[in-house]
Design goal:
Layout lengths: L11 E2 L5 E2 L1 H11 L4 E7 L5 E4 L2 E4 L7 H8 L5 H10 L1 E8 L2 E10 L2 E10 L14 H6 L4 E6 L6 H15 L3 E6 L12 E6 L7 H8 L6 E4 L5 H12 L3 E6 L4 H10 L3 H14 E11 L6 E9 L2 H8 L6 H7 L12 H10 L5 H7 L3 H10 L1
Parallel strand pairs: 9-13, 9-14, 10-11, 10-12, 12-13
Antiparallel strand pairs: 1-2, 3-4, 3-8, 4-5, 6-7, 7-8, 14-15
Helix pairs in contact: 6-7, 7-9, 9-10, 12-13, 12-14
Length: 378
């Protein structure tokens, strides 16, 4: 905590003439549950706002002033992170409060200081509760090598799904698990496995430096928090190719778009080499979205799953990315080399189960025509 900025200082005046501290604002996550209230946004010129079931809900009070912003945000920063904010105009950090871990991004923008605060439960969810459309997760946790990518927009639950997979591996297997994250989100308990978690800029300089060091530390399972640049992607692919089970994330909306995004990080002269690496090292792409439930009690996951079987690997190797969607539509049987599904098909299943409203599901489909077709077939 930054000296001179106490967590419990009541600084934000609400419409009922009370004042809230940042501690009370964070307590609200615990009271309502982090699965429903996911984020808190603070910025100069607007009231603080929570993201509840995917929608922003502003507090009833005046716009935040520059002074109030500092008194709400600075208590969450260490002296080191405060200095980084002043030097770099943006800082990623984490803050732990009882049963919740908060992932925090603080930055400067046109109106002044701003913060995006995301709540994560310290308890890693059980994999059965994530919402997989099939039992492909059982195949994933039993793998010994290959790259498993979780993709989706910010707030789609990628970190939660990966934490559930790694948590189950840790329970059932005596292996060495190593992560490099920015910042650390879920704290993994030591169970059958030995787990080391490293945070960028605190324990290691960067993702690719952490990855390079990991390869000399005898890991079995590796988690790279995000593939942000070509060097990190290249090292992640190499780690997957050389006998490690590797998990990572990207901000893409579907499986085909994920392959394209990876290739776009590299110059044209290297793309054939990367396509070949990806075809050999990739195991699964899971693209997910969190969609509001029909009964209004929260959100539910909708997934697209690519299993990189021989046919998909061949399409990737030869650059025929546009044909991947056909594989997702047809290779759906309960076989180790299939178990694929499109986002549209999973949305359709959830609608038919009464868990999603059809009009809401349609909004979240990547391909509306494919969703309409799927609704007619189910």
């Amino acid at each position: 905590m930054t000296e001179g900025y106490p967590l419990s200082a009541k600084v934000y005046p609400t419409s009922d003439l009370e004042k809230l501290s940042i501690l009370e604002m964070l307590n609200y996550f615990e009271q309502q549950g982090a699965m429903r209230v996911s984020d808190l946004h603070i910025k100069v010129g607007a009231p603080p706002a929570y993201r509840i079931d995917g929608s922003l809900v502003k507090l009833k009070g005046p716009p935040v002033t520059p002074e109030i912003a500092e008194r709400l945000i600075y208590p969450l920063l260490s002296e080191l992170n405060l200095q980084k904010l002043k030097n770099d105009f943006c800082v990623d950090c984490s803050y732990r409060l009882r049963s919740l871990q908060f992932r925090i991004n603080i930055f400067l923008e046109n109106d002044g200081l701003a913060a995006a605060i995301r709540a994560l439960s310290l308890e890693v969810p059980q994999i059965e509760d994530i919402g997989f459309p099939n039992n492909v997760w059982q195949d994933i946790i039993n793998r010994k090598h290959g790259l498993v990518l979780l993709t989706g927009i910010t707030g789609a639950g990628k970190s939660t799904t990966i934490a559930s997979l790694i948590g189950r591996i840790s329970e059932k297997t005596a292996c060495r698990i190593m992560t490099v994250e920015d910042p650390i989100e879920y704290i993994f308990p030591q169970k059958s496995s030995i787990i080391s978690q490293r945070e960028v800029r605190r324990d290691v300089k960067s993702f690719h430096v952490g990855l390079r060091e990991m390869l000399r530390q005898d890991p079995d399972v590796i988690f790279v928090g995000e593939m942000r640049d070509a060097e990190t992607i290249a090292m992640t692919l190499m780690a997957a190719e050389t006998g490690h089970l590797v998990f990572s994330t990207l901000h893409t909306r579907d499986a085909a778009g994920t392959v394209t995004r990876i290739l776009d990080y590299f110059p044209e002269g290297r793309q054939a080499e990367v396509r070949n690496q990806l075809s050999l090292g990739l195991a699964y792409i899971i693209s997910q979205k969190l969609v509001p439930k029909a009964d209004g009690t929260g959100r539910i996951v909708a997934m697209e799953i690519l299993n990189n079987n021989y046919a998909c690997a061949n399409l990737i190797r030869h650059g025929k990315i546009e044909q991947i969607y056909t594989q997702l539509q047809t290779k759906t049987r309960d076989r180790p080399d299939e178990k694929m599904i499109t986002t549209e098909k999973h949305l359709t299943i959830l609608v038919k189960q009464g868990r999603l409203d059809q009009l809401e599901a349609r909004k979240w489909a990547n391909n509306v025509k494919a969703f309409v077709d799927a609704m007619q077939q189910v």
